[in-house]
Each structure stands twice: as structure tokens, then as C-alpha cells.
């Protein structure tokens, strides 16, 4: 074959390998099979079919289009399967890739592919660190440089990446010699020009290295997303741990004011507090249905009603039954209700009312917590819940949690004109509940509370 045609096919071959690797890794199922250390037999078979199945078509196309040789990636794919997924995958995948060639008389391709898959899988087993597999560089100079740096403080004769590089070159040499001895029994691109032959060797290394680099970049991205998720979870736990002591501190202050002059009522409040704490200890969910959150608010208000007096603190509810099954962040409403009592009603001689409202609008949950107390001053608008109205830790926690969980998708507004009470409105994206009936159950037993 003409040298220029060989070089064109080599360039196309690298492009085909990059395209195939990029297309495969777009599948969630493929990524779940590829980026795991332990696989069941069923998962191994699926991974082989995912990789070797489509690329076997490239081998078949080589026989249909005699001039298009770039689609045959059986040699590189067999080694890739073995080094990424082990000997079984490498040998079985190599056999599957050799099937079209065997059907067209190239019988020697089958044992050669099985040999490549077995050696690559064995090399994977002796790798001291599996990260070496994913960080393989087609440039042997970089591998040699890293080997020298690692061996300077502590000399080591074994370097996995250099061995992998050498194995690819050695197997490519075996394939070349096999095609010379059995020209009709196997296929291999060959050229009498030494520089074209060197390009053929380099292409095999580049194909394997390119596919590994593409998959490793996705693997790193998945790890970063997992780390981001864990960081977000830790941040939410920190916020939850922040609000719970704050709530407990304020509630104990309410109990302490009753201990001396009304011990029976103080005992009743302690029992209610114990029930609340039991609920907090049992539930570690970041999200709960709105109905469950309102049940918690009921228990909290039982304590506050005792402290204020049943004639001075009234709670009115206007709840859309359809909204009660929507999932919201746990302990989201308690700081808002506490803010109404502490800043709105505590200084009002005649007491007052707290209004709790919920409804669905445009695939969003609207929650309103309002009081008719003394207000908090001028109106405050939080288009993005990053700010804070007031100086308490509770309202800051609500704003921070909304920002962490929803970003710009949620909105919190606070309207508090002087002397006319405070209205806090939350607009949250609707999250589906695991139990669609929970809202209806709570709607049946929720009534206007006085």
C-alpha cells in the first residue's frame, strides 16, 4: 500500500478511536460499568459488548471497503479492554473483535487477540497502583522522566507505565512478524519505509493513550462531582447542626422562665421538648414533606403557646392540600416562625397572630409565614438568598440553606413595614415526594389552630 495512503489511514484511525471513546463515555450505563473495580459476570459481559461490539463493526467494514483500514481497532481495543477491565474482558473481547476476521479467513487473529488480552490483563494485575493505568501517557519520554524522578530517592527497577509502553510495542512487533509469516491469516498495516513503520507503531500507542485520556478525564470529572456532592452534604450537615443548638437554646430559655413560678407547666414543656428532640435525633433526612415540617412546627408552637398564653398567641393556617406532599429542607420553617415570635410578637402587649400559608404556582411551592407584630423596619428584598434580615442565626441559616440547595432557583422575600408585621415568602422549586399520600393524610387532620 502507498505510504501516503497508510499515513491518511493512521490519522483517521486516531480520529475514529477518539470519536468512539467519546461516544461510549456519554452513556451513564457505560460509565457505571467502566469506572468500577469489582464487576459481576453479567457486568463484565455488558462491558465487553459495550466496547467490543461497536468496534467489531469497524473490522467488518475493512472487508467491505478495502481502502478503509482505519476502522480496524481490534489490536488496540483488545489491549485496552485487558488493561482496564482484566484478563477475562481482554480475552473475550479480543475474541469478539476477531470474529469478523476469522469469518473472512484471517484465523490467526483469534489466538493473537486472546494473547494480547491475557497479557494486558496480567499487566493490570501486577500494577502497584491502579492510577498508573489511567495516567498512562503515550509519550514514553514522560514515563521515563517520571520513572527517573521516582527512583532518585528510592531506586526501583519496576515502572508500570514503561512496561505497558514496552508491551504495546512488543505485541505490535509480534503482529507485524505474524503478518509476514502468515500474510493471509492475519491483518497488519505494513510499510517498507522505516519512518512509516514507526508511525504505525506510534499510532497504536496514541490510540490506546487517547482513549485512556478521554475516559480518565470523565472519570476525574465524576470524582470532582462526587467530592462536590460530599462537600455540599457536609455543609448542609453543618448548617443543620447549627440550627438545632440554636433552637434548643431558645426553647430552654422559655422553659427556664417557668420553672420557678409554674413548675407543672415547665414540666409539660420539657416533655414536649423531649418529643421534639426525639424527632430530631431519629430523622437525618435533608428533605422532608411539607406536612412533616408543619407537624414539627405544631410541636414547637405548643411550647410557645404555653409561654405566651393561649389567648395571646394564635396560629392560623391556610394550606393547599396539594402542596403538603412537596419536599422541602428539614427545619426550614422553624426559624421563620421563631423570628415572628421573637421580633414581631414578643414586644407586643396584646400578643398577636401567626399565619402559615402554602400553595402551588407555576411548578413552585409558595410558603408564607406572616405575623401581625411590630414589624422589622423598612422592607427588605432578597432576590438571591445570600443576605440576612435581622441579626439572628436562624434567618441567616434559612438564607444560606436556600442558597446552597437551590442557588438562583429559589427566592426569599421579606416584607416588614414599620408597625405592620412581617411577611416572609419562600418560592421553592417543587421536588417530588417519596410518598404521594403524605400530603392528603396531613390535610385531613390539619385545621385552623388557635
What do you see in this structure?
With 450 residues, this protein is of the alpha+beta class. It has two domains: 3-226, no CATH class; 260-445, 2-Layer Sandwich (Heat Shock Protein 90), CATH 3.30.565. It is built from 15 helices and eight strands. The strands form two sheets. A six-stranded mixed β-sheet has the order 2-4-5-8-7-6, with helices on one face. A two-stranded antiparallel ribbon has the order 1-3. The radius of gyration is 34 Å and the shape is elongated. Mean pLDDT is 80; it is low at 378-391 and 433-450.
Provide key terms for this protein.
single chain, 450 residues, alpha+beta, Heat Shock Protein 90, 2 domains, six-stranded mixed beta sheet, two-stranded antiparallel sheet, 15 helices, disordered C terminus
Number-wise, the strands total 8
Shape by Cα distribution: elongated
Class inferred from helices and paired strands: alpha+beta
Strand order of the largest sheet: 2-4-5-8-7-6
Instruction: Give the number of domains.
Output: 2
Output the radius of gyration: 34 Å
Helix content: 55-70%
Mean pLDDT: 80
Given as residue ranges, the uncertain stretches (5+ residues, pLDDT < 50) are 378-391, 433-450
Give the number of helices: 15
Distance N to C terminus: 93 Å
Largest sheet: 6 strands, mixed
Order of helices and strands: HHHHHHHHHHHEHEEHEEEHEEH
How much of the polypeptide forms β-strand, as a percent range? Answer: 5-15%
Write the layout of secondary structure elements.
Layout (H helix, E strand, L loop, with lengths): L2 H22 L3 H7 L6 H24 L9 H12 L1 H17 L5 H17 L5 H4 L5 H12 L8 H22 L12 H66 L3 H20 L4 E3 H19 L4 E7 L7 E3 L4 H12 L6 E10 L2 E8 L8 E3 L10 H14 L4 E5 L6 E8 L8 H8 L5
Parallel strand pairs: 2-4
Antiparallel strand pairs: 1-3, 4-5, 5-8, 6-7, 7-8
Helix pairs in contact: 1-10, 3-4, 3-5, 4-5, 4-6, 4-10, 5-6, 6-9, 10-11, 10-14, 11-12, 12-15, 13-14
Amino acid at each position: 500500500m502507498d505510504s501516503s495512503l497508510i499515513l491518511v489511514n493512521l490519522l483517521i484511525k486516531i480520529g475514529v478511536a477518539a470519536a468512539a471513546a467519546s461516544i461510549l463515555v456519554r452513556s451513564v450505563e457505560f460509565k457505571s460499568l467502566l469506572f468500577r473495580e469489582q464487576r459481576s459476570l453479567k457486568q463484565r459481559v455488558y462491558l465487553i459488548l459495550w466496547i467490543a461490539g461497536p468496534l467489531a463493526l469497524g473490522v467488518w467494514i475493512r472487508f467491505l471497503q478495502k481502502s478503509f483500514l482505519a476502522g480496524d481497532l481490534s489490536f488496540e481495543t483488545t489491549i485496552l479492554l485487558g488493561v482496564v477491565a482484566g484478563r477475562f474482558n481482554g480475552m473475550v473481547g479480543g475474541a469478539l473483535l476477531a470474529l469478523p476476521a476469522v469469518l473472512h479467513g484471517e484465523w490467526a487473529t483469534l489466538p493473537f487477540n486472546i494473547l494480547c488480552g491475557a497479557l494486558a490483563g496480567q499487566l493490570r494485575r501486577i500494577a502497584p497502583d491502579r492510577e498508573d493505568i489511567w495516567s498512562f501517557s503515550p509519550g514514553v519520554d514522560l514515563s521515563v522522566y517520571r520513572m527517573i524522578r521516582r527512583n532518585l530517592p528510592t531506586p526501583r527497577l519496576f515502572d508500570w507505565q514503561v512496561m505497558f509502553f514496552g508491551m504495546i510495542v512488543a505485541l505490535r512487533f509480534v503482529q507485524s512478524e505474524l503478518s509476514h509469516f502468515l500474510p493471509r491469516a492475519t491483518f497488519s498495516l505494513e510499510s517498507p519505509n522505516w519512518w512509516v513503520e514507526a508511525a504505525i507503531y506510534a499510532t497504536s500507542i496514541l490510540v490506546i493513550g487517547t482513549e485512556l485520556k478521554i475516559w480518565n478525564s470523565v472519570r476525574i470529572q465524576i470524582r470532582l462531582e462526587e467530592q462536590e456532592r460530599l462537600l455540599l452534604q457536609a455543609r448542609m450537615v453543618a448548617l443543620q447542626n447549627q440550627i438545632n443548638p440554636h433552637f434548643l437554646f431558645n426553647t430552654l430559655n422559655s422553659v427556664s422562665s417557668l420553672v420557678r413560678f409554674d413548675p407543672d407547666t415547665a414540666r409539660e414543656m420539657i416533655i414536649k421538648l423531649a418529643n421534639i428532640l426525639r424527632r430530631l435525633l431519629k430523622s437525618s433526612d435533608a428533605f422532608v414533606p411539607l406536612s412533616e415540617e408543619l407537624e414539627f412546627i405544631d410541636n414547637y408552637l405548643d411550647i410557645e403557646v404555653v409561654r405566651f398564653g393561649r389567648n395571646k398567641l394564635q396560629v392560623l393556617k391556610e394550606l393547599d392540600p396539594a402542596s403538603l406532599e412537596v419536599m422541602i429542607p428539614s427545619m426550614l420553617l422553624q426559624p421563620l416562625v421563631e423570628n415572628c415570635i421573637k421580633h414581631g410578637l414578643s414586644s407586643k402587649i396584646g400578643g398577636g397572630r401567626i399565619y402559615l400559608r402554602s400553595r402551588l404556582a407555576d411548578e413552585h411551592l409558595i410558603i408564607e409565614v406572616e405575623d401581625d407584630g411590630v414589624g422589622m423596619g423598612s422592607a427588605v428584598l432578597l432576590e438571591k438568598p445570600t443576605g440576612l434580615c435581622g441579626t439572628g442565626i436562624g434567618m441567616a441559616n434559612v438564607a444560606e440553606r436556600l442558597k446552597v440547595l437551590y442557588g438562583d432557583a429559589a427566592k426569599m422575600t421579606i416584607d416588614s413595614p414599620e408597625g405592620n408585621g412581617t411577611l416572609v415568602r419562600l418560592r421553592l422549586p417543587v421536588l417530588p415526594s417519596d410518598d404521594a399520600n403524605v400530603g392528603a393524610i396531613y390535610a385531613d387532620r390539619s385545621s385552623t389552630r388557635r
